[in-house]
Amino acid sequence: MFRRFISYYRPQRLLFAADTVCALVMAGIDLAFPSILRALTGGLFTRDSDAITGALGYIAAGLICMYALRCGCRYFVSAQGHVMGARMESRMRQDLFDQYERFSFSYFDRVNSGDMMSRVVNDLFDICEAAHHVPEWIVICGTEIIGAFVILFLISQTLAAVMAAVTLIFVIVMVRQNLTMRAVYTDNRIKISEVNSQLQDSLAGMRVVKSFANEETERRKFYRSNDRYLGSKESMYKVMGTYQTTSALMTGSLYTIIVVLGGYLVAQRSMSPVDMATFALYITLFTGPIETLVNSTEVFQKAIAGFRRMDEVLESMPEIKDRPGATDLVVRRGAIEYRDVSFSYENREISERGHARPVIDHMNLAIAPGETIALVGPSGGGKSTTCALLPRFYDVSAGAITIDGQDVRDVTQESLRRSIGLVQQDVYLFDGTIRDNIEYGRPGATDEEIADAARKANIHEFIESLEDGYDTVVGERGGRLSGGQKQRIAIARVFLKDPAILILDEATSALDNESEEAVQDSLEHLAENRTTVIIAHRLSTIKHADEIVTVEHGQVVERGTHEELLARGGTYARYYRMQFEGVRMVGKSN
Ligand code: ADP
């Protein structure tokens, strides 16, 4: 983990070196000033007034040069130091994103998207704050503390030793307080995230809240989490107050010691008054950096925790990878075969018998080129999973799936997924224009090709009727369009992609009857000359399929044309009767 962290510094090594040098120069100048003043008050300023006036010009020039240099270094450390941190953050963000893209579906089943977001946003921010501040603080504060102590020790060993002992006691107390503060901060973060999720839940579900007239319940829930957050903030400010008081007490005690003990030493003639004043000047150079270093442990720890979380992601291996030497899939006719396929989800509960029950259980299914088959059966029977195995969203646990005789695990994922078009119940449109969303099917397609795809999907006229036409922005997740319109844009996308194989997973289930008809038309057109697998819970929508396959408990239990299956009087006939007699809906109803 440490090596990986250092690797992010490597491309920035010049900047890092320059940043460190500037930090050193700044610390050196800060340390030099009280000594310069000491030299002047102890030597030059005791001479006659003409000599003093004559020297002031040189002193002014020297100080201006010194502080101009310090300002230059300050600018470099502030600006370029942050730039370095931002560059590192940006590279880490890219690496995380690339890694997320490599992961397979099972990863996204397991990991919560809020958690992924927080790794990319909050954790990286913490890491990069530390990446540039902590080394800079260590250089500046370390040099100032050690330098100040050495200088003071050379002036008066007794006073420096007493000061160091008192400072040490305060540092121990402050570190302990800092630990309490960290615990309170953590609690504060938890409480604010509770407020956020409560707010998000209530706002997102506001229609339900209002329709049940449950505003009062929601208000109570929100107030409760808001009060908890307030309580945590109050504790935080109390602890913060105590910490700052301790720090002020440390500075005050050191000044008092200097005046009392220093005064005594001056009275005893073991120290000059100028040296005593120099001590006082060095106090802030001593206490300020100590406070910064104590605080930096928090930043550092947050960064370590964040980097550990990032490292965890970068270390995880994607479950589905291209085999070495995998070739591109060549679809000649589009024949699909499931040969004795079994599959279980990793995160599936264990069945009562104590064995993980396979979702797909020794399934055999052959689909002829260009054929349209419909999968029907009870909800949870394994229809969607059957389809998800074809583009290798998950890998089979046993058996094999082939397309024109090529095992899907032997070909590149990219060529495999380019050959398969998927239309699902939930349409995801990206926030952008209608054109962008259709073009997603084949990046780089011309406007004419996009319009042609839209025409085939029966959506061209609607798009043209909009004020901005293809440039209409669809809004977040396509929020400005109806379900049917979104679905037809998704279909246009697949027309543009022009895959040899098509999967329609409950593509019309979420639509009302009228939109369903329009979409159904486009889908039938889309399925022409492609091997197509349809999952639909409304049996009326699959009557045109060449064959119907009933899937139950992950197995094919029946197969035939609509008429054949009705005549057979088996499971399909039962479902069909149930639906049309209106007794109960079959298929996926959740
Ligand atoms: P169908 O499409 O026939 O309704 P599915 O293939 O969606 O059935 O689901 C089959 C079984 O697999 C169900 O018991 C379901 O709960 C489970 N399942 C589906 N998707 C996942 C998943 N991503 N992780 C774990 N279990 C899942």
Automatic annotation (TrEMBL):
Membrane topology: Multi-pass membrane protein
InterPro entries in alphabetical order: AAA+_ATPase, ABC1_TM_dom, ABC1_TM_sf, ABC_transporter-like_ATP-bd, ABC_transporter-like_CS, P-loop_NTPase, Type_1_exporter
Pfam families, per database record: ABC_membrane (PF00664), ABC_tran (PF00005)
Family annotation (Gene3D superfamilies): ABC transporter type 1, transmembrane domain, P-loop containing nucleotide triphosphate hydrolases
Domain ABC transporter: 336-578
Taxonomic lineage of the native organism: Bacteria, Bacillati, Actinomycetota, Coriobacteriia, Coriobacteriales
A GO-annotated cellular component: plasma membrane
Protein name according to UniProt: ABC transporter related protein
